[in-house]
Backbone:
């Protein structure tokens, strides 16, 4: 499972500090404090970087909840880490390799909704029109996956689902009937190196009612839901623990997936076990 970081770079919010090719440059080792770029595939970065800093030690990182600036969760797009590190820790080569506008657009379109849901808009300093066109020598996005995606639900920011402890059997069965799908999934919470909580699906997702969901995509959808709806996820799982849950929800008219009810499934909850058994023969 991918590791997600929540980081913010203070200086990047100033558009006037973009990289100037006329400045003298030098190469330095990527500092340990730049944890998000320590495993990016190279060990030295060129200064000045995008914020124009000549001292890598002056780059200040802090949790996204406590400051604005460039928000980056490398789980929101496969190349989010590449995009971020190409700006703040550009690879040290004879030629300065910039970021393509197309990569900026790809990361922005995927990651901006994640951070907007948490109250952090895409920073004006990262206007994708400022980056070079695809025909120039620059970092471009990977080719899009060619697997069939038509009809797959999308994940969006939503109101938090209701969490119901120790429900009656009828309550669980009614929820199965009222919604498009019902699944069991183990949600795990841990802290990232940046100190922020991260959530992941621990193990397989099991279907109770499949509805419009696809077996190969459902775990990824739920992982994306936890990433985008971080505030909701905070209320579902205690730190350092995994919580088995029954999740019910529907696909909206606009194609977005919405979780509606969450039933934490603990050992003492015999009613949930009874409901899942009865569902095979239940008529709504």
Residues:
């Amino acid at each position: 499972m991918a590791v997600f970081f929540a980081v913010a770079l203070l200086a990047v919010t100033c558009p006037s500090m973009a990289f100037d090719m006329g400045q003298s440059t030098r190469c330095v080792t990527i500092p340990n404090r730049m944890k998000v770029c320590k495993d990016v595939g190279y060990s030295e970065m060129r200064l000045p970087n995008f914020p124009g800093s000549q001292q890598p030690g002056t780059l200040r990182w802090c949790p996204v909840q406590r400051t604005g600036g460039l928000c980056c969760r490398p789980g929101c797009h496969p190349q989010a880490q590449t995009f971020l590190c190409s700006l703040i820790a550009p690879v040290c080569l004879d030629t300065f390799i910039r970021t393509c506008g197309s990569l900026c657009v790809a990361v922005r379109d995927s990651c901006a909704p994640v951070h907007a849901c948490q109250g952090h808009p895409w920073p004006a300093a990262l206007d994708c029109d400022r980056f070079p066109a695809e025909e120039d020598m620059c970092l471009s996005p990977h080719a899009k996956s060619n697997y069939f995606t038509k009809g797959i639900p999308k994940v969006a920011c939503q109101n938090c689902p209701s969490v119901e402890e120790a429900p009656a059997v009828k309550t669980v069965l009614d929820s199965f009937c009222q919604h498009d799908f019902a699944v069991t999934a183990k949600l795990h919470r841990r802290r990232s190196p940046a100190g922020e909580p991260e959530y992941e699906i621990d193990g397989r997702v099991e279907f109770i009612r499949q509805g419009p969901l696809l077996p190969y995509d459902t775990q990824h959808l739920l992982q994306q839901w936890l990433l985008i709806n971080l505030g909701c996820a905070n209320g579902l799982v205690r730190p350092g623990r995994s919580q088995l849950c029954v999740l019910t929800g529907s696909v909206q008219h606009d194609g977005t997936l919405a979780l509606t009810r969450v039933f934490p499934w603990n050992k003492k909850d015999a009613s949930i076990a009874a409901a899942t058994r009865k569902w095979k023969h239940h008529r709504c």
In short: Residues 1-22, 57-71, 145-149 have pLDDT under 50 and may be disordered. The first helix runs from residue 80 to 88. DSSP finds six helices and 14 strands in the chain.
